[in-house]
Design a protein that fits this description.
It is an enzyme of class 6 (ligase). InterPro entries: GMP_synth_C, GMP_synthase_B, GMPS_ATP_PPase_dom, NAD/GMP_synthase, Rossmann-like_a/b/a_fold. ATP binds at residues 29-35. The chain has 305 residues and is α/β, with parallel strands linked by helices. The chain is 40% helix and 20% strand. The chain is built from ten helices and nine strands. The chain has a five-stranded parallel beta sheet with strand order 3-2-1-4-5, sandwiched between helices. Strands 6, 7, 8 and 9 form a four-stranded mixed beta sheet that branches. Strand 6 and strand 7 (243-256) form a beta hairpin. The longest helix has 23 residues, at 96-118. The chain starts with a helix and ends in a 13-residue tail after the last strand.
Length: 305
């Protein structure tokens, strides 16, 4: 386990040395990784830093409003409404790796636009060790590692938590005094709901994934999962009222893990699963059925794409 006080001092020194007198933007998603990176960078270089949160339309329910509130102390925070641009980029894209690259390029374009506006030469990211391992091992490209375009318009990319595992990042978050809603938050993928949608990403599917994930997070809170969410798999027939429908199939996933490198599917009480399916099908007119994923990692990954 990392020695948090020493790590914080070293990370701030590294950020100051890397950025110098220049300006930087930080990719802020609201997850614990980027929040720790943003806080370290903000404490290290102050108003040289511009935090940038990009609303891709693929975020959790209420995420954007929560970001505005939680990070309001950072006066230079930029919230970019980019939903339409991201959905346009993703139109017709069905390959999982291509999705990640499209989203990575979209993020970089947004960050570069802000960087040009504020005269920033550096990009700070919350990349952690498992992100690098999975990208380098061709398990999957992370939007902030393998998903980046080959050429970016920055003098350098600074990754202060690149050698930490998730549980170590949480320790640093607690030491920094970040609110529990951040330090203990469930992981959320950088590409957002796009990797919880099998096939083409559309606003309709994103809405189903977002609302269903909100239900899952609420209903499974007592199980204290490492990660729990809902994914949209495709369509199947069902019956609602007296009508036959062809609606979405939603998969519920809940796992236990230490660092995300391996994971075990949680054993969930049948009555809880029934309550989840009842809420998801009842609150989403276009959902025909709900299934529970019992697969561990390996052989599956935690996310679907």
């Amino acid at each position: 386990m990392v020695e948090t006080e020493a790590f914080i001092d070293e990370a701030k020194a590294e950020i100051r040395e890397a950025i110098g007198d220049a300006n930087a933007v930080i990719a802020l998603s609201g997850g614990v990784d980027s929040s720790v990176a943003a806080t370290l960078a903000y404490e290290a270089v102050g108003d040289q830093l511009t935090p940038v949160y990009v609303d891709t339309g693929l975020m959790r329910k209420g995420e954007t409003e929560e970001i505005r509130e939680t990070f309001s102390f950072m006066e230079s925070l930029r919230v970019i409404e980019a939903q339409e641009r991201f959905f346009d980029r993703l139109a017709g894209v069905t390959d999982p790796e291509e999705k990640r690259h499209v989203i990575g390029e979209g993020f970089i374009d947004e960050f570069e636009s802000v960087a040009n506006d504020v005269g920033a030469d550096y990009l700070v990211q919350g990349t952690i060790y498992p992100d690098r391992i999975e990208s380098e091992g061709n398990i999957k490209s992370h939007h902030n590692v393998g998903g980046l375009p080959e050429v970016v318009d920055f003098e350098g990319i600074v990754e202060p938590v690149r050698d930490l595992y998730k549980d170590e990042v949480r320790e640093v978050a607690r030491e920094l005094g970040l609110e529990e809603v951040i330090s203990e938050r469930m992981p959320f993928p950088g590409p957002g709901l796009a990797v919880r949608i099998v096939g083409e990403v559309t606003p309709e599917k994103a809405d189903v994934a977002r609302e269903s994930t909100h239900v899952v997070e609420e209903e499974l809170e007592e199980y204290d999962p490492w990660q729990a969410f809902a994914a949209v798999l495709g369509k199947a027939t069902g019956v609602k009222g007296d009508n036959r429908v062809h609606g979405w199939v939603v998969a519920v996933r809940s796992v236990e893990s230490r660092d995300g490198m391996t994971a075990r599917a949680q054993e969930i009480d049948w009555s809880t699963l029934q309550r989840i399916q009842s809420r998801i099908t009842g609150e989403n007119d276009d959902v025909a059925r709900v299934v529970y994923d019992v697969t561990h990692k390996p052989p599956a990954t935690i996310e679907y794409e």
